[in-house]
């Protein structure tokens, strides 16, 4: 296979299929991810305006089963039904139809099948915990497993790379949810294997402090956010601070690669929190402007700062495009930090709900 630096869209076009497959079922479980350097702003065809890097999560995940049955002849439109948590879910279908249209060129076999998609998430969707990332990566992996049935000789590395390539076309951040534990997406000079087309496992040395990093997600607001990420990305076109922001993301990624090596948590925390606040400041300074943080988001941030100042514990926060707060800390301090979270932060969550997660290894296939 081509090395990732030279791969282009053409490399993902289908090869002649060697097998006929009539009917079957495939299940994949794919995690969400939390960006440390944020993807915010994109060009045409889901190409990111700047590189991003994320921790793959472990417990926040989607499980998707794809049942497929070959039809007598291919249809004009994609022929699929969607069940979310056991019920037909019409409002998730448009995103999936868009996804199928975008990948049709690379997976032309899709229209030959009647597809039934059954999916569920282990966490609330559409509230800034990247359900689109786990949802689209799980579906992309199911599609790739179907392609592998048609082309059994496909190499594993190509399988994973194309799954990430397809997932990106469903939702940009989804391309970072195929593999663990740290994934980079977007061309960046300091990381030769990086690509705008798919996510790659962070290739550098990672200090052991990050090996089992914890992420406790505080559910400040479980409701659907008022502006989707896709709309938010588009508001970076013509944004007065866009170019400076894109440059800053490169600089922060470079700084983070150094931090991954040294394990300097002061630098890590400063960088990660600054990225989260910059993301939200981009939303606040776009036209139209919007605020996705809630009063309790700010209460939690202030409490974290106060606690860090008081105890010296390496605890920091990050945010995605929503009100919920991801609290990040090394595993060796879990006991004491969880105590603080339960005693002082959980009161700010909707129905006192929070999710304990940690850095994970990526998606896995479940045998049906
Ligand atoms: N299991 C799933 N299978 C397929 N699509 C899903 C699944 N879960 C969520 N989605 C899609 O993702 C959409 C939510 O994505 P959106 O970007 O608005 O929010 P999010 O993923 O929670 O937050 P973030 O901005 O952090 O990515 C849903 O409306 C739905 O279309
Ligand atoms: C704030 C973010 O979570 C934005 C995620 O955006 P999406 O990947 O959800 O957007 P689309 O490509 O339009 O589907 C930051 C990040 O995960 O890098």
Automatic annotation (TrEMBL):
Output the superkingdom of the source species.
Answer: Bacteria
A Pfam short name:
MVD-like_N
Q: What is its EC number?
A: 4.1.1.33
Keywords, in A-Z order? ATP-binding, Lipid biosynthesis, Lipid metabolism, Lyase, Nucleotide-binding
Q: Which GO terms describe its biological process?
A: isoprenoid biosynthetic process
Checking InterPro entries in the record gives:
GHMP_kinase_C_sf (IPR036554), Mev_decarb (IPR005935), MVD-like_N (IPR053859), Mvd1_C (IPR041431), Ribosomal_Su5_D2-typ_SF (IPR020568), Ribsml_uS5_D2-typ_fold_subgr (IPR014721)
Keyword Lipid biosynthesis among UniProt keywords: yes
Named from the GO MF annotations, one term is:
diphosphomevalonate decarboxylase activity
Could you say which enzyme class this protein belongs to? lyase
Domain (Mvd1 C-terminal): give its ranges.
Answer: 217-348
Q: Where is the Diphosphomevalonate decarboxylase-like N-terminal domain?
A: 30-189
PANTHER family listed in its UniProt record: DIPHOSPHOMEVALONATE DECARBOXYLASE
Q: What protein name applies here?
A: Diphosphomevalonate decarboxylase
Species of origin reads Gillisia limnaea (strain DSM 15749 / LMG 21470 / R-8282)
């Amino acid at each position: 296979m081509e090395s990732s630096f030279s791969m282009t869209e053409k490399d993902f076009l289908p090869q002649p299929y060697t097998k006929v497959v009539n009917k079957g079922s495939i299940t994949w479980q794919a995690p969400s991810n939390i960006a440390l350097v944020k993807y915010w702003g994109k060009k045409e065809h889901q190409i990111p305006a700047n590189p991003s890097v994320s921790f793959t999560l472990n417990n926040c995940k989607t499980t998707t089963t794809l049942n497929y049955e070959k039809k007598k002849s291919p249809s004009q439109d994609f022929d699929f039904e969607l069940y979310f948590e056991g019920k037909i879910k019409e409002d998730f279908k448009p995103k999936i139809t868009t996804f199928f249209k975008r990948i049709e060129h690379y997976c032309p076999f899709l229209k030959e099948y009647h597809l039934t998609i059954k999916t569920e998430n282990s966490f609330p969707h559409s509230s800034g915990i990247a359900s689109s990332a786990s949802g689209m990566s799980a579906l992309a992996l199911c599609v790739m497993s179907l392609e592998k049935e048609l082309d059994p000789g496909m190499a594993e590395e190509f399988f994973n790379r194309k799954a990430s390539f397809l997932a990106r076309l469903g939702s940009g951040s989804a391309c970072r949810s195929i593999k663990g534990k740290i994934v980079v997406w977007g061309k960046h000079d300091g990381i030769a294997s990086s690509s705008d087309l798919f996510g790659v496992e962070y290739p550098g040395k990672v200090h052991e402090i990050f090996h089992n990093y914890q992420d406790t997600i505080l559910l400040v607001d479980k409701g659907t956010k008022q502006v989707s990420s896709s709309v938010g990305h588009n508001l970076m076109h013509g944004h007065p601070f866009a170019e400076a922001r894109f440059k800053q993301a490169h600089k922060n990624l470079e700084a983070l690669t150094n931090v991954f090596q040294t394990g300097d948590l002061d630098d890590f925390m400063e960088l990660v929190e600054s990225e989260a606040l910059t993301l939200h400041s981009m939303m606040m300074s776009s036209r139209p402007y919007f605020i996705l943080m809630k009063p309790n988001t700010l209460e939690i941030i202030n409490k974290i700062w106060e606690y860090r100042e008081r105890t010296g514990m390496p605890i920091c926060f990050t945010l995605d495009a929503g009100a919920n707060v991801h609290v990040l800390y090394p595993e060796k301090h879990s006991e004491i930090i969880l105590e603080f979270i339960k005693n002082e932060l959980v009161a700010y969550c909707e129905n006192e709900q929070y999710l304990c997660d940690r850095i994970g290894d990526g998606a896995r296939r479940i045998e049906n």
